[in-house]
Amino acid sequence: MKLTVKLQDHSYPIFIERHALEHVADFLDPHRKYVIVTDDGVPARWVDLLQSQLSDARVITFPCGEANKSLDTYESVMEQVISSHLTRKDAIIALGGGVVGDLAGFVAATYMRGIDFYNIPTTVLSQVDSSVGGKVAIDMAGYKNIVGAFHQPKAVLIDPETLSTLDQRQVSSGLVEALKMGLILDERLVELFEQEPLDLDTIIARSIDLKRAIVENDEKENGQRAILNFGHTIGHAIESAYHDVPYYHGECVGMGMLFFLPDPTLRARVQRILERLRIPATPAYDPKALRAFVEHDKKGQGDSVRAIVVDRAGACRIEPMTYDQIETILERSPYEK
After folding, report:
1. Which one of 190, 192, 253, 318 is separated from 74 by 20 to 30 angstroms, measured CA to CA?
2. What's this model's pTM, rounded to 2 decimal places?
3. Which residues lie closer than 8 Å to 263 by C-beta, 6 or more apart?
């Protein structure tokens, strides 16, 4: 399957195909000079498979984990890119999950004021969400994605076969982002999560097509694209506050969604799906402490934040909320009827 993200200044293809990584020459120029940025959580089989098909490609690897989406790692990777003598005619390939895509994309966005990069996501989370849209960033001072840019990829190559090397927790965490897409835009996608067995390929394809449409309508998150932050307002706060646990990003988004589902019936429905995916329950928390993290989120606007509320599956609304209102929401357990 081929989808196209049609933007005014930069359109690009999304290829979704099992075993696509076995013939990358069909999707990018194998004779171009590349730096492949990955982390040590990506199995060597995928790294070796990609590098073996490129005539001039250096691999840069950093330790896996959100903690390494940092200024120190950015500096280390950038120094290695500089030592590789890449020019503006060359390109960076991100091979890995969301952390790799965000960091490698930010390196590509800032090296020589911007060079091409290709995104090859290898986790469910990155395949259904973060690989498309051009949002690249690093974390700093305990806040997620606080330093970043919009830098669209040259192309995105999604090979669901790479998911075969993931553990179930990683798969489930990523699927929460697909569930999010269904809750805000497409009840049919929510229904796919209630079927047995899960049709992973269909869920990925439908999710990324919905993400593509949103990005086309609002590339820089000035309007509709904000709905993709459903679950993230409080989810990011939980992720930052409990970074030493650590929870996966998708797990925190799942926790965060429950606070903005006013209908008890829908909330119970979502809870059942999250339980089926084995997403952890929201930990005991201090409402004021989480509020502080929400206040420092980059999505904040002065004394308020644009919260995404889902009243029924497949439809959502943007509701500006003060931080006092957020704290009031946090004072009530998301599991209360």
Report:
1. 253
2. 0.86
3. 311, 312
Contacts 24+ apart (CB under 8 A), 320-324: 323/291, 323/294, 323/295
If you average pLDDT over every residue of the chain, what do you get? 94
Largest CA distance in the chain: 59
Structure tokens at 107: 């390196």
Q: For 163-222, how does the pLDDT look when each residue is reduced to its tens digit (9 = 90+)?
A: 999 999 999 999 999 999 999 999 999 999 999 999 999 999 999 999 999 999 988 877
- Cα radius of gyration (the chain): 19
74 within 8 A of 138, measured Cβ to Cβ:
yes
Q: Is the peptide bond before 283 cis (omega within 30 degrees of 0)?
A: no
Separation between Cα atoms, residue 219 and residue 232, nearest integer Å: 18
Q: How far apart are CA 312 and CA 197, in angstroms?
A: 24
Residues 6+ away with beta carbon under 8 Å from 180: 129, 228, 230, 231, 253, 257
CB 127 within 8 A of CB 119: no
| Token representation of residue 209 | 């097509």
Give yes or no for a contact between 222 and 98, defined as CB atoms under 8 angstroms apart.
no
